[in-house]
Amino acid sequence: MDKKQKALFLDRDGVINIEKNYLYKIEDFEFVDGVFEALLYAQSLGYKIFIITNQSGINRGYYSDDDFHILTNWMIDSFKEHHIDILDIQYCPHTPDENCNCRKPKTGMIDNILTHYNIDLEKSWLIGDKSSDIQCAKNANIKNTIQVRSGHTFDKSEADFIIDKLDKNSIVNIIK
Fold it and tell me: Which of 66, 87, 90, 104 has its CA 20 to 30 A from that of 73?
C-alpha cells in the first residue's frame, strides 16, 4: 500500500473565501487575502489539500447543484492558476433537519475522501471557522485543528489553535 499522506481539510466559507450567506455566484466570491500563499506553503510541506463544505442552500432552494458546481469549478481553476492542487471537494447539500451522514459535524465527507486517498489523520489538519468544523475533525480522528475567526465571535473553542484568517503568516509557526 502507498505511504500515508498528510492532508489539510478546509472548510470553504469563512476560511477560503469571505463569508457571505448562501454564496453561489462567482461575482460575489472573494478569496481571503493571503489564502493562496498559505496553501502554497502547506503544499510545499507535502500536504494534500481537500475542501469539505456544508452547502444547505442547495436543499433550501436558494441555489442549485449546478450553481454550486459552476462556482466550484471556477474556484478550482483559480487555485490551479496559483499552482495549488485541490485533490477533492466534498459538499453536503442537506439542511440540518435532514439528519444526513455528511453534514458537519458528522464525518461523511471525510469518510468519502478516506475511501480514495491514503491519509494519515494523525499528521493532518482541519481548518474551519465554526465549532461544527472542529467537532467534525474530532469525530473523524483528525488530530490537529485550527479555528479561523473570520468575523465570527465565539467565547471558547475546542480547536488547537485560533487564527484571524488563513494566511501564511498565521500558519507558518503552526503547520510544519
Answer: 104
Cβ atoms of 158 and 134 closer than 8 Å? yes
pLDDT in tens, 137-176: 999 999 999 999 976 777 788 999 999 999 999 999 999 9
Q: Which of 121, 59, 71 is nearest to 113 (CA)?
A: 121
Residue 33 near residue 14 (C-beta atoms within 8 A): no
Residue range 49-92, pLDDT digits in tens: 999 999 999 999 999 999 999 999 999 999 999 999 999 999 99
Instruction: Compute the chain's Rg from CA coordinates.
Output: 15
Which residues are part of the catalytic machinery? Answer: 11, 13
Q: Are 137 and 129 in contact (CB under 8 A)?
A: no
Q: In the chain, what are the domains? A: 7-171 (3.40.50.1000)
User: 35 and 167 in contact (C-beta within 8 Å)?
Assistant: yes
pTM of the model: 0.95
Distance in Å from the first CA to the final CA of the chain? 25
Backbone phi and psi for residue 2, each to the nearest 5 degrees, phi listed first: -60, 155
SS3 for 91?
Answer: strand
Per-residue cell: 137: 475533525
- C-alpha grid cell, residue 145: 485543528
